[in-house]
Amino acid sequence: MQTLRGTAEHLIRTGWRFWLLGLCKALVPLQAAWVAFSQPVPASCDQLLIQLLLCGSLAVAAAGLAHHWLVSSLLYPLGPSAIVASLCGLLVLLGLGLVPPARCLFALSVPTLGTAQGRRLLLSWSTATLAVTMVPNVLANVGAAGQVLRCVTEGSLESLLNTTHHLHMASRALNPTGRGLTIQAQGNGSVFRLHMLKVTQQVLEDFSDLESLAQAAALGIQRVVTGLFLLGLLVNSARYLHCYLTDLRFDNVYATRKLARQLEEAGATHLLASPPAWLLRAAWPRLSQAELLSCLLRLGLLTLLLVATAVTVATDHVAFLLAQAAVDWAQKLPAVPITLMVKYDAVYTILDFVPFLFNQPPLEKPFHSAHKSLQWELRFTAPGCPLLPARRPLRAAPLAAGLLQLLAGATILLETYARRLRHTIAASFFTAQEARRARHLHARLQLRYDRHRGQQPPLQAPS
């Protein structure tokens, strides 16, 4: 038993060792590519080739994503979208290949997506996706229910007028004795019917205009907000790079390897023996208590947005179910057959008091007899009024919005790591500036250490 256990442990350790070795070998070309990409001037032909390949790949990817985004999300035409995407790819290629700070800015924009600015961009995309798809869908289902109301109103009105017409024909069948019986509709039935049709048609047109207006407004807001947030993303990255290059105290709270090397060379490793609370280890995966509390508070706020999204999706489904039920109910309304049989027999008697004296029934003689049968149908929906089908809720839009919101929630947890990654990227591109920042942090730690020693009470001499 112990032999089997030892063999299993040996196999696990061997597999773990091979996995680490393979991971290290896989990271070697990635590290070489990153070194070549972050060099202002390539040191060799290999670095130049790698840099050109990376810049070309990023330009093609940026052009493809821009084209897909313009066509699918913002609903621009194919021709202008292709031209704009091509110009975008060309500008990215020229900027990354010829301007080293542009490469740094492009690299900084990726972790910036994990900060508050990127989270706002993701949430704006999510909200715009829901607004563009669900608001017109809800209005279309309300319009379908309104069409049911129109058809039922029109059909009931026609049936009422038709019934009045047949009753009038039945009264005419009693002529000449039924001339005193008059059945007719008060007012002009055609005018009343046209008025009802105009009212219902106006209501449906208002709903259609509201649907078009809501869709256009949501699309316009999505375009404007997305453009502003993308511009804000680039401006935020540029501001970080500017502050990193001009202010030695900006985001200089990381205990990096360069700082540890400088302290070791200066013989001042004791400065990190009791580090201050604001000093963070750049490669340390754990979050501080303040960072964890901030993440939990932001996740709570994001949960409210998820609840609002769920309510919006539920509203869309409820509107669809109500519209579908109304349409099905209207389609299943039966035509009620009506048969009106008119039977009129008129008789008269002469000197009917004489038979009464002899306790005999009076002698009746027929005067007029009328028999007529009328048939028609009561239809509660007008035959010429088409019922609009209920529009099913789109599944892709809520899934995409939920995925974007989950990504926004992930950025809350990864925001601290994104900030550390921004510092690491800037340090890779500007090594001389990072050395100056490390010396500044060294002096700051030394000053704190000297102040701390000066506040300590002097040691008493032993008696």
TrEMBL record:
Coiled coil: none
Alphabetical UniProt keywords: Membrane, Transmembrane, Transmembrane helix
Residues of the Dendritic cell-specific transmembrane protein-like domain: 250-442
Listed GO CC annotations: membrane
Protein localization: Membrane
Topology in membrane: Multi-pass membrane protein
Transmembrane segments annotated in the record for this chain: 16-37, 49-70, 82-100, 121-140, 213-235, 295-314, 396-414
Coarse class of the protein's main subcellular location: membrane
PANTHER family: DENDRITIC CELL-SPECIFIC TRANSMEMBRANE PROTEIN, OSTEOCLAST STIMULATORY TRANSMEMBRANE PROTEIN
Protein name: Osteoclast stimulatory transmembrane protein
Organism this protein belongs to: Pipistrellus kuhlii (Kuhl's pipistrelle)
